[in-house]
Design a protein that fits this description.
The protein has 203 residues and is of the alpha+beta class. It has a single domain, classed as Intergrase catalytic core (hpI Integrase, Chain A), CATH 1.10.443.10. The strands form two sheets. A three-stranded antiparallel sheet has the order 1-2-5. A two-stranded antiparallel ribbon has the order 3-4. A hairpin with a 2-residue loop joins strand 1 and strand 2. The radius of gyration is 18 Å and the shape is globular. The termini are far apart.
């Protein structure tokens, strides 16, 4: 119970992230990992930009190499709901009954990205179907041991910022990559920082 309480207390917002931290810092995190599985987890969190629960659901069959890309197929997407029926609550407001909706996303990861090799090597050696047979709490512990100032969703925001900064992904590209529902979510996550703005000024 103490561990769960501390994890909730340490939760931070992606709004704190100003721009892409850079590959050097990400590689430093990788080098701090004690196990190959931990390195693969950090790589998967960043490269897929998935929520921690989505990353922990990944299986070997979700990945296929199509040079020069590692294609992630049908990665589960959580937090998807469809409206079933409307109703009026006790305060007279209109509400909706919902049920969970199955959703997936398919997207490429460039094989030349510095973190990709750690994930790909791990997948090739894996003898089981499921990539990470660990809980969310264990994943949090791995991340916090590397740097107490970062959190799982930090990798998601970093990926969005990196795609915008280095590949020039616009809002619509980010929506396609992450399977986001609207522009507001994309703008919430992606921050290019001053370097991205400077690149826009190049002639």
């Amino acid at each position: 119970m103490d561990v769960i309480f501390k994890l909730k207390k340490a939760k931070r917002s992606v709004e704190e992230i100003e721009s892409f931290c850079g590959w050097d810092y990400l590689l430093k995190l990788i080098k701090k990992c004690e196990q190959e599985k931990d390195r693969a987890l950090i790589s998967a969190l960043f490269e897929t930009g998935g929520r921690v629960s989505e990353v922990l659901m990944l299986k070997k069959d979700n990945f296929i190499v199509q040079e020069p890309y590692l294609v992630v197929k049908a990665m589960p997407v959580i937090k998807r709901y469809k409206k079933i029926q409307d109703y009026i609550d006790i305060k007279g407001r209109k509400r909706w009954k919902t049920e969970k909706k199955k959703a997936t996303r398919t997207f490429p990861i460039h094989l030349k990205e510095p973190l990709c090799e750690f994930l790909l090597d791990y997948i090739k050696k894996l003898e089981t179907d499921r990539l990470f047979n660990i809980s969310r709490v264990q994943a949090y512990r791995i991340i916090r041991k590397l740097d107490s100032n970062i959190f799982p969703h930090w990798f998601r925001a970093q990926r969005a910022s990196q795609l915008a900064l280095e590949y020039g992904f616009d809002i619509h590209d980010l929506i396609d990559f992450f399977n986001w529902k609207n522009i507001q979510i994309a703008t919430h996550y992606s921050h290019m920082g001053w370097k991205g703005l400077a690149n826009k000024m190049k002639r």
